[in-house]
What does this fold into?
Amino acid sequence: MAIKLYDLAAADPAIRFSPNCWRARMALAHKGLAVETIPWRFTDKQVIAFSDQGRTPVIVDGDRWVVDSWSIAEYLDEVYPDKPLFNCAQSKAYCVFFRNWIDRVVNPGIVKQIIVPLFGFLAEEDQPYFRESREKMFGKTLEDFGAGAAEALPAFRASLTPLRLTLERQSFIAGDEPAFADYLGFGAFQWARTSAPHDLLESEDPIYAWRERMLDRFEGLGRAMPARAA
It folds into this structure.
């Protein structure tokens, strides 16, 4: 029986943009597990009420459910130990740091670039919730928060220097082959790729080349999702 993944969708149910859901999708693909992805929207809280919370990703594996991409990765390594996402306890500890860097540095830089266009492709019924919740979080309107995105882009690119230097030395964040650290990073850049009207990465950037390699993994799973800038 395929694992069910509740996956955040835009107005077009084929468009899946959530960075956290992409972390889970790539982790499941890494394990080679059969997956049924179910489009979910912000206002579909009742659909995942069984999980005692209101966010995706959520996976259902038989009679078990797991929420949060990190917890999903831990669950997958526990229940399906082949092809580990964390090669050892030490690599998992390093991955905690990388997750925090992505969440606290990379994702906030991406949000400024994509917040207004992302709002535009959400389902109409999701837009009031998204606007109210994000404006409460930011303390300003979506439009004011996203103002000056073009001027902020060089600083965002500069903030990626630690990742850029890493990928100048090795093919993947985890080394010769990707692991969950790569899926943490890929989730962020796939979010940008599917939401921004222009590419946030320059084509000569080692991060761009890494993202291309990641898009081609698992028979082009990531590349099958069209880029907003295309």
